[in-house]
Amino acid sequence: MSDNKAKLDINGTVHDYPVLKGSVGPDVVDIRKLYGQTGAFTFDPGYKSTASCESGLTYIDGEEGVLLHRGYPIGQLAENSSFMEVSYLLLNGELPQQQELDDFSYTITRHTMLHDQLRQFYQGFRRDAHPMAIMCGVVGALSAFYHDSTDISDPEHRKISSHRLIAKMPTIAAWAYKYSVGQPFLQPQNDLSYTGNFLRMTFGVPAEEYELHPAVEQAMDRIFILHADHEQNASTSTVRLAGSSGANPFACVAAGIACLWGPAHGGANEAALNMLKEIGTPDRIPHYIERAKDKNDPFRLMGFGHRVYKNYDPRAAVMQKTVREVFDALNVKDPVFETALALEEIALNDDYFREKKLFPNVDFYSGIILSAIGFPTTMFTALFALARTVGWVAQWNEMISDPGQVIGRPRQLYTGPTERDYLSMDKR
Ligand code: CMC
């Protein structure tokens, strides 16, 4: 809090509003009393200038391309830690001691199984259902199976449901894949890491021992870290808004998954790889660059641009490096990567993209790695959902633990008809 005040003159009357200071980042004008004092609302569709909550989890400086979780730069976390460690950090605020990490990993590992009846949910879907459709349905259904942890006023319930969500998501996502390819579901195996377990449940078969490739396991774990949380993005805000009414966390996370699915958000990784494949070879890039710049053409460069980053997305830099590591380890070459590198270079030197500060985002390279590992494009957003679950859950917990938390209820600028009398059918 500071003594600074913002002055707002509405129709000749000046009102003062406190200017709040975060630990870092832009100041915030506290307008909570605005409506009560002036009868006016603010208008900010898309929340381009609105801080919807107070949070101590993740900080982004979009101008500088900085992303910190609890103060730690994403590059350092991706390089040195594990997804379990980052999950602990997000949930608890500090990096764990070894014993704390071991206990946390043990707990998560022991929650990875799904209630056996949940298998039947899968049978209700068509085999060609999009994995995100299955994720929305199955995650929403968790509240019907685990209602012993849905009393959100009880911190112990909140903790158990958080652990359950983080732990069960890999099983749910892997089974969505297995169902689509008609292979039997594999149960989790407790001697594997969080990420190793997920890879085995996805690509293993009962007939033989699954061999984990260390480089793939590490790359996958890093991809999970890069997607773990990202401040008040659309799906996280959805989880918070759903949770603000007191809804249980399984339902809230299902709402977050639905929001993440859109191509402007988590669906962009699938769209980006499809776009790169459609472009095909570097000589066709200029045509697509022109289309992206054409106001009359709805085409956009997928995996490019960001609401917050007006600089290189720090996650994209790690992702590009990881592509090379996975390709080297698996000894693969993919012309799509060459196309992506060429597209990035051309776009970054193009006035349109420079002026609008459009840079590659996390989704630009992730699809190339996931494809090399063996995932079909339809699984990409499901993997994003899997990793983002810890962020959703941590943000939801932060909100519910806040004594000042109230239901989210935006207002509007009404432009519809004013009051008028009902007309009987013969008078319309
Ligand atoms: N290709 C071409 N032009 C673009 C692009 C793009 N990818 N992104 C933005 N622009 C232009 C846009 O046409 C607009 O131009 P003008 O000012 O002339 O109307 C200007 O840049 C600003 O765009 P905006 O849509 O007003 O910006 P926004 O902050 O509302 O949108 C975005 C951000 C991520 C939705 C957008 O950049 C986009 O659609 N990108 C492609 C989809 C994508 O990669 N999404 C993943 C985001 S990162 C992962 C995640 O958060 O889920």
Automatic annotation (TrEMBL):
<dbReference type="InterPro" id="IPR002020">
    <property type="entry name" value="Citrate_synthase"/>
</dbReference>
<dbReference type="InterPro" id="IPR024176">
    <property type="entry name" value="Citrate_synthase_bac-typ"/>
</dbReference>
<keyword id="KW-0816">Tricarboxylic acid cycle</keyword>
<keyword id="KW-1133">Transmembrane helix</keyword>
<dbReference type="GO" id="GO:0036440">
    <property type="term" value="F:citrate synthase activity"/>
</dbReference>
<keyword id="KW-0012">Acyltransferase</keyword>
<keyword id="KW-0808">Transferase</keyword>
<dbReference type="InterPro" id="IPR019810">
    <property type="entry name" value="Citrate_synthase_AS"/>
</dbReference>
<comment type="pathway">
    <text>Carbohydrate metabolism; tricarboxylic acid cycle; isocitrate from oxaloacetate: step 1/2.</text>
</comment>
<dbReference type="InterPro" id="IPR016143">
    <property type="entry name" value="Citrate_synth-like_sm_a-sub"/>
</dbReference>
<dbReference type="InterPro" id="IPR010953">
    <property type="entry name" value="Citrate_synthase_typ-I"/>
</dbReference>
<comment type="similarity">
    <text>Belongs to the citrate synthase family.</text>
</comment>
<keyword id="KW-0472">Membrane</keyword>
<dbReference type="GO" id="GO:0006099">
    <property type="term" value="P:tricarboxylic acid cycle"/>
</dbReference>
<keyword id="KW-0812">Transmembrane</keyword>
<feature type="transmembrane region" description="Helical">
    <location>
        <begin position="364"/>
        <end position="387"/>
    </location>
</feature>
<dbReference type="InterPro" id="IPR036969">
    <property type="entry name" value="Citrate_synthase_sf"/>
</dbReference>
<feature type="active site">
    <location>
        <position position="363"/>
    </location>
</feature>
<feature type="active site">
    <location>
        <position position="306"/>
    </location>
</feature>
<dbReference type="InterPro" id="IPR016142">
    <property type="entry name" value="Citrate_synth-like_lrg_a-sub"/>
</dbReference>
<protein>
    <recommendedName>
        <fullName>Citrate synthase</fullName>
    </recommendedName>
</protein>
<dbReference type="GO" id="GO:0005737">
    <property type="term" value="C:cytoplasm"/>
</dbReference>
<dbReference type="Pfam" id="PF00285">
    <property type="entry name" value="Citrate_synt"/>
</dbReference>
